[in-house]
From TrEMBL:
Monomer. The active site is at 113. GO terms for cellular component: cytosol. Keywords: Cytoplasm, DNA damage, DNA repair, DNA replication, DNA-binding, DNA-directed DNA polymerase, Magnesium, Metal-binding, Mutator protein, Nucleotidyltransferase, Transferase. It catalyses: DNA(n) + a 2'-deoxyribonucleoside 5'-triphosphate = DNA(n+1) + diphosphate. One of its GO terms (biological process) is error-prone translesion synthesis. This is DNA polymerase IV. Its main location: cytoplasm. Its EC number is 2.7.7.7. InterPro entries: DNA/RNA_pol_sf, DNA_pol_Y-fam_lit_finger_sf, DNA_pol_Y-fam_little_finger, DNA_polymerase-Y, DNApol_IV, IMS_HHH_1, Rev_trsase/Diguanyl_cyclase, UmuC. It comes from the Bacteria.
Length: 409
């Protein structure tokens, strides 16, 4: 395997896995530069666990998901800070945008990581290694943060590669080195191996991925069942048929906004919900997706947060329907009059938009709304997002003089 550069075949290792280093901790430290180089832990919440820790804290054995009390014992000098989720979301969005500048084939896996298939980006941006270097340089220049990138022929191997070169690393696994890279690793490194499977493998005396590759498939079947045996056997031989699919890995679309001042007025919050519903619906339509579950998030001035969600009878990509559901959730939450600092709208449980039903009550006119939304999208495309907004978002004063209306196609 090759660290950093190294010649690669003309095609082959085209999958990148990008993962931010100590993400929550690193973003929080951007606002606290005096703490750089110190052991810092981001944690708290009702469960009191470590969410993220700087590598200085990890040197003491601290790691994520560990109870805070234990982390404090291991590293008494560590400073424990609360998470700042809004900031993490903002940085995440910008980092994902950097990745989407390279290729539309970006599949985010969590707030701080994504897969890219760069096979189609070679002509524009160079080899996968050059692309990986460019991404790392841009994230560092734009955000002041480091990430680690694994480059490999499959998603599974790319993900392991990024983990193995952390922090601030780049690791390339050319196709011919995949088996040599995988086989010494413990079985727990395989996707889909949890504690129970690991124990079953252990009973067979299988400790490494290489042991699984050498084990007869029949033996694995007896111990694990057909599906799991096939899956692990294939991965152990470096086979991973999954393609980077920006749609299937995206489980939700959300938009949220931190208000510039805390707001208690219901009308104003409703308008914020309307605007965010429009953003969410627009992003759904841009991806050809529809949602079955609409949720809201309300964070109060004291930082307590409530979320509510409702599953619809039919999937939708219509702004008005998402808004109507969001507004109902807001009203039913019984939080009128409280000062709010952040509002969010989320669409989850996504399906293909083609499956969208149009069987709602006749007065809801989803088809008409949908057409209106699509026209709005088309205009937004040509004149920039925000060029067209629902009337209730416009200032209530008489509008300023406007440029002549663009000609409609
Ligand atoms: P990770 O990428 O797993 O961890 P990390 O970025 O902190 O560190 P590494 O350098 O090893 O990648 O997770 C990304 C962020 O997700 C992490 O900073 C905090 C958050 N997180 C949770 O909120 N809950 C969890 O259980 C875990 C594991 C992470
Ligand atoms: Mg990370
Ligand atoms: Mg991660």
């Amino acid at each position: 395997m090759t660290s950093e550069a190294g010649p690669m075949g003309p095609m082959g290792s085209d999958i990148l896995h990008v993962d931010m280093d100590a993400f929550f901790a690193a973003v929080t430290l951007l606002g606290r530069p005096e703490l750089r180089g110190q052991p810092v832990i981001i944690g708290g919440g009702p469960r009191g666990v470590v969410l993220s820790a700087t590598y200085e804290a990890r040197a003491y054995g601290v790691h994520s998901a560990m109870p805070l009390a234990r982390a404090r014992r291991l590293c008494p000098s560590a400073l424990v800070l609360p998470p700042e989720r809004d900031r993490y979301q903002e940085v995440s969005r910008r980092v994902m945008a950097v990745l989407r500048d390279v290729t539309p084939l970006v599949a985010p896996l969590s707030v701080d990581e994504a897969f890219l298939d760069v096979s189609g980006a070679r002509r524009l941006f160079g080899t996968p290694v050059e692309i990986a270097r460019m991404i790392r340089a841009r994230v560092l220049a734009d955000e002041g943060l480091t990430c680690s990138v694994g480059v490999a022929p499959t998603m599974f191997v790319a993900k392991i590669a990024s983990t193995r070169c952390k922090p601030d690393g780049l690791l390339v696994v050319p196709p011919g080195d995949v088996l040599a890279f995988l086989h010494p690793l413990p079985t727990s490194a395989l996707w889909g191996v949890g504690r129970a499977t690991e124990a079953a493998l252990d009973r067979l005396g299988l400790r490494t991925i290489g042991d699984i590759a050498d084990c007869p498939l029949l033996t694995l079947r007896h111990a694990l069942g057909d599906a799991a045996a096939q899956h692990l056997h294939a991965l152990a031989h470096g086979r991973d048929e999954r393609a980077v699919d920006p749609d299937t890995t995206e489980v939700s679309v959300s938009a949220e906004h931190t208000l510039s001042v805390d707001v208690a007025e219901a009308d104003q919050l409703a308008r914020e919900l309307l605007r965010l519903s429009g953003q969410v619906a627009r992003r759904l339509r841009a991806r050809g997706r529809a949602t079955r579950t609409v949720g809201i998030k309300i964070r109060f001035a004291d930082f307590t947060t409530v979320t509510r969600a409702r599953t619809l009878r039919e999937p939708t990509d219509v702004s008005q329907e998402i808004y109507r559901t969001a507004l109902a959730l807001f009203r039913e939450a019984g939080i009128a009059g409280r000062a709010v600092r952040l509002v969010g709208v989320r669409a989850a449980n996504l399906t293909e938009a083609g499956a969208t039903g149009h069987q709602l009550a006749i007065d809801e006119r989803p088809a008409a709304w949908s057409q209106l939304d699509r026209a709005t999208d088309a205009a937004g495309h040509r004149f920039g997002a925000g060029a067209v907004a629902p009337a209730s978002l416009l200032p209530r004063q008489p509008p300023p003089p406007r440029a002549p209306k663009p000609h409609n196609p």
